[in-house]
């Protein structure tokens, strides 16, 4: 039993779970917008997401705090080094336009993690901006990159779909911010810190309705959107400051994975 706990700890702390979550959103985009499936892009998104999250979580420990690492963290850092090699390999398999888009996302990630300006903290600690940067990175990664890789134009349908994805991730992060309310630095000025938990939930519910309205604007209401709205609304409704840490780290981050499996099952039944 101990070995399973250690593996699960590594799966979560090593950002493997969140990388699978991002990958499934990419696969959902490819299926719904009929983008060409690209194993190179899939590999790049999985490895780069894993690398980016580990970089954001552990970079400051290496650069600033210089703490004595436990064995678990040492394993994660070595693992991240191997992931870096995988990221580079898949990056050079991408189309040139996709590489440019990926480079822009890398710049956003570095801006999020590193203090580039003298006497300034990184963007992660800028008041209220964290949620927008993360949502934008996920939308670009899971919608814009597959469009570029397949040579598709960024028309109104793709842009509206990208806006939907931005809102989806925004709502998921809201749940994280509610659960982390007691532990977050007040200077972060997260949404629940600014307006309270109940008003934050109301905004989240409103954004979920907006996702549905955007589907009608495209002229193609998707069952996926309805599933996402219902499941996310439940997690949002029951989120509170005393929720267990795996409420978000595992279950909320599993929502895209569950939806992808559901969509895959529906497609299989139709066949």
Description:
By secondary structure, the chain is an all-alpha fold. The chain has one domain (2-270). 75% of the residues lie in helices and 0% in strands. It is built from 12 helices and no strands. Helix 3 runs parallel beside helix 5 (96-113). The longest helix has 27 residues, at 39-65. The chain starts with a helix and ends with a helix. The mean pLDDT is 86.
Question: What low-confidence regions span 5 or more consecutive residues with pLDDT below 50?
Answer: none
Beta-strand content: under 5%
Helix-residue proportion? over 70%
Q: How large is the radius of gyration?
A: 19 Å
Give the tally of β-strands.
Answer: 0
> Helix and strand string, N-terminal first?
HHHHHHHHHHHH
The helix count comes to 12
In terms of structural class, how would the helical and strand content be classed?
Answer: mainly alpha
> Can you summarize the main beta sheet?
none
Distance between the termini: 40 Å
- Using the alpha-carbon principal axes, give the shape: globular
How many structural units, i.e. domains?
1
Overall pLDDT, averaged? 86
Characteristics:
mainly alpha; globular
Q: In a nutshell, what does this entry contain?
A:
The chain is mainly alpha-helical and 271 residues long. The chain has helices at residues 2-13, 16-32, 39-65, 71-91, 96-113, 130-149, 156-179, 191-195, 197-218, 223-238, 246-251, 255-270.
């Amino acid at each position: 039993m101990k070995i399973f706990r250690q593996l699960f700890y590594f799966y979560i702390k090593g950002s493997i779970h969140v990388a699978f979550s991002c990958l499934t959103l990419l696969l959902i985009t490819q299926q719904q917008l009929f983008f060409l499936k690209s194993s190179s892009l899939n590999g790049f998104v999985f490895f780069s997401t894993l690398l980016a999250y580990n970089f954001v979580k552990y970079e400051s420990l290496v650069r600033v705090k210089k703490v004595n690492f436990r064995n678990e963290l040492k394993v994660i850092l070595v693992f991240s080094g191997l992931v870096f090699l995988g990221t580079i390999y898949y990056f050079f398999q991408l189309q040139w336009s996709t590489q440019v888009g990926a480079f822009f996302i890398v710049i956003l990630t570095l801006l999020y993690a590193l203090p580039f300006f003298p006497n300034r903290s990184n963007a992660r600690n800028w008041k209220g901006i964290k949620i927008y940067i993360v949502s934008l990175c996920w939308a670009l990664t899971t919608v814009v990159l597959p469009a570029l890789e397949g040579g598709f134009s960024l028309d109104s349908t793709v842009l509206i779909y990208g806006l939907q994805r931005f809102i989806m991730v925004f709502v998921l992060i809201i749940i994280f911010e509610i659960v982390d309310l007691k532990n977050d630095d007040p200077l972060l000025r997260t949404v629940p810190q600014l307006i309270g938990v109940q008003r934050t939930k109301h905004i989240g519910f409103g954004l979920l309705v907006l996702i549905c309205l955007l589907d009608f604007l495209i002229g193609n209401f998707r069952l996926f959107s309805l599933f996402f709205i219902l499941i996310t609304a439940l997690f949002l409704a029951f989120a509170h400051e005393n929720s267990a840490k795996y409420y978000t780290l595992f279950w909320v981050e599993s929502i895209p994975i569950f939806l992808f499996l559901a969509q895959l099952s529906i497609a299989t039944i139709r066949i």
